[in-house]
């Protein structure tokens, strides 16, 4: 069950600008700190780092605008 919630958080982190605290609540974590610990334990990085890396990957795949 927890992995499914974390899968959902990964999707939201990668594809939305929803604040981390809102994502935590939406995915069933009572506190941002609980969500952050669970996410870090599962993925090895903090949720904010995951989001930043996903945005950097997306930017590198997008064609440059002249």
Could you characterize the architecture of this molecule?
The chain is an all-alpha fold. The protein has helices at 2-15, 20-26, 32-43, 47-61. α2 crosses α3. The longest helix is centred in the last third of the chain and has 15 residues, at 47-61.
Summarize the structure.
This protein has about 70 residues and is mainly α. It has helices at about 1-15, 20-25, 30-45, 45-60.
What percent of the residues sit in helical stretches (DSSP H or I)?
over 70%
Model regions low in confidence, pLDDT < 50 over at least 5 residues: none
Instruction: Please give the alpha-carbon distance between the first and last residues.
Output: 46 Å
Q: Write down the oligomeric state.
A: single chain
Largest sheet: none
Radius of gyration: 13 Å
**Which percent range describes the beta-strand content?**
under 5%
Number of H- or I-type helical stretches: 4
Got a strand count?
0
The shape is elongated
Average of per-residue pLDDT values:
91
* H/E element sequence: HHHH
Helix/strand-derived class?
Answer: mainly alpha
